[in-house]
Amino acid sequence: MTTLTGTTWYTRPATRGGRPPEAPPPEIAAFHRTLPGYAPTPLVELPSLAAELGVRRLFVKDESSRFGLPAFKMLGASWGAFRALSRHYGVPLADATLGRLRARTGERPVRLVTATEGNHGRAVAAMARMLGARARVYVPSGVHPAAVAAIEGEGAEVAAVAGSYEEAVGRAADAATAPDTLLVQDTSVPGHDQVPQWIVDGYSTLFTEIDDELSARGVEPPSLVAVPVGVGSLAQAAVAHYGRTSPPAALLTVEPDAAPCLLASLAAGRRTTIATRTTIMSGLHCATPSALAWPHLRERVDAAVAVSDGDTVRAARDLAARGVHAGPCGAASLAGVRAALAPGRRAALPRGHDRTVVLLGTEGAAANPLP
Questions:
Q1: Residue 271 maps to which CATH number?
Q2: Mean per-residue pLDDT for 122-142?
Q3: Are 171 and 277 members of one domain?
Q4: How far is it, in rounded angstroms, from Cα 283 to Cα 285?
Q5: pLDDT tens readout for residues 297-314
Q6: What is the total count of domains within the chain?
């Protein structure tokens, strides 16, 4: 286990930059449109922050209400659970519908299990409820009681784990060995890479919405995208999407300085487990990057930064003053861009990064209240 000593900034060497992951299947966005309550989330332009940061235009993708939940996670959890249940029941994807899978769970009950630090577990629980399945969610120490109550409010059984997120993931993986039990986890564990990949693919809808909205407004495609990172699944989806645009958008990852596992891994050049501290950015409190995401992030992340809880509180308040009510994880992207565009750092970013900056506001204030 690695302990960081002041490392808060990384930029990608010119020797890195392999091919991006394969593009996700095009039917995912169409699937999301079949879910109750689907609507594209707002892309909010904030000219005052653009002026502060010295960029041409700045937008926040506001994920404070996605399918009625206060975070983006339902995009991945829904597609991952849908694909996992289709496979479990032997229903060909071309024939799978929500109604058909609900009928099969009524005939042969199934339980979805996962580990979470809040938003992913709630999304899996909500999808289980939608499909008529049961859910058990393993929750590590330090998760806000409001997040635990929200998971229970979706009808899931919550299993408290007196330990880290990684320990909770292990408990969930062990539980998934029981009959008619499916692991719907957003980080890979040995023997469990397919569902995490489906979850990553599910996030692609977020990026197609951004591109469609910018195009409809006559705005240039993103030149810099700031992504909050826990294990790195959303960043993997960003790499898959924006690594294929021309020119490709620069990718900035943002983590809490109490748990910067991706930053430590990038700096070391190998996937690394670190010692962590408590942070208000609980959804980003991870000690090891996803094994599935790591090879792609190692080659394609342009810059990585770690931010403090204080920086994130300031960012959340500044966003709220402009009508975007983000939780700590969602506000981390603004804190990260402020750190990355500081004097002495911004010159290390790819040329043209300052044309159209997009911050991923991955969770709303309701998901994880500020202290």
A1: 3.40.50.1100
A2: 96
A3: no
A4: 6
A5: 999 999 999 999 999 999
A6: 2
